[in-house]
Amino acid sequence: DLYRKVFVFRKDPSDAYVVLRAQLERPLHNFTVCLRSYTDLSRPHSLFSYATRAQDNEILLFKPKPEEYRFYVGGKFVTFRVPEGRGDWEHVCASWESASGIAELWLNGKPRPRKGLQRGYTVGATAAILLGQEQDSFGGGFDLYNSFSGELSDVYVWDSALSPDKMRAAFLSLRLPPALLAWNSLSYEVKGDVVVKPRLRE
């Protein structure tokens, strides 16, 4: 249970990452990924990378620069412009639904304008899920200069597009629906220089 704890990625650039294990029984037609990050990086970095053997950017949450998030589904991406962070924790949730092809990005409990992405697509179930690196091949192919350095916390993945109420609840760390991956019952393996520490402040 990682309640009130964080992963600290100590080096910059870094070859370290965290492997997440999820029980995915079937392909995803909808999903939501949420996490909190704390970093002073201004270079591009990967937050959440979900690769299948067919597609290395099956799901990717990537930050090319401080005022932009890139959200990939099935190798295609949309860009969300965001206010540049003020050196504090950022809570981001990205959701997608196949039927409408609607991609949403919520930053610190507020939605950005919705975008269209990969309508009718299906996300594969046999996946390598990593924090802190961007996969260019299944479980590998890292570019050090896309690595994450800083602190990550509160990582969740659901097999549905969360409602606005639940998006706000995720930001406020309130009760959340059962998840495929949940921070308070995370099955993970640290690879390299990543340390689990208590959160410094709420």
- Which structural category do the helix and sheet elements fall into? mainly beta
Query: What is the class in the CATH system?
Result: Mainly Beta
CATH fold-type name: Jelly Rolls
The CA-CA distance between the termini, in Å, is 17 Å
CATH architecture: Sandwich
Measured by DSSP, the beta-strand proportion falls in 35-45%
Say how many strands there are: 15
The mean pLDDT is 96
* Biggest sheet character: 8 strands, antiparallel
Shape: globular
Q: Which residues form runs of ≥5 with pLDDT under 50? A: none
Oligomer status: single chain
Helix content: under 10%
Count of domains: 1
What is the count of DSSP helices, taking H or I runs of 4+ residues? 1
Question: Helices and strands, in N-to-C order?
Answer: EEEEEEEEEEEEEHEE
Family: Belongs to the pentraxin family.
Organism: Oreocharis arfaki
Pfam families: Pentaxin
InterPro entries: ConA-like_dom_sf, Pentaxin_CS, Pentraxin_domain, PTX_dom
Can you describe this structure?
- This is Pentraxin family member.
- Its cofactor is Ca(2+).
- InterPro entries: ConA-like_dom_sf, Pentaxin_CS, Pentraxin_domain, PTX_dom.
- It is found in: Secreted.
- The chain has one domain (about 5-200): Jelly Rolls.
- The chain contains one helix and 15 strands, in the order βββββββββββββαββ.
- It has one helix at about 165-170, and strands at about 5-10, 15-20, 30-40, 45-50, 60-65, 70-75, 75-80, 90-95, 100-105, 110, 115, 130, 150-160, 190, 195-200.
- The strands form two sheets. Strands 1, 3, 8, 9, 10, 11, 13 and 15 form an eight-stranded antiparallel sheet that branches. It has a seven-stranded antiparallel sheet with strand order 7-6-5-4-12-2-14, with no helix packed on it.
- It is globular, with a radius of gyration of 15 Å.
- The model has no long low-confidence stretch (mean pLDDT about 95).
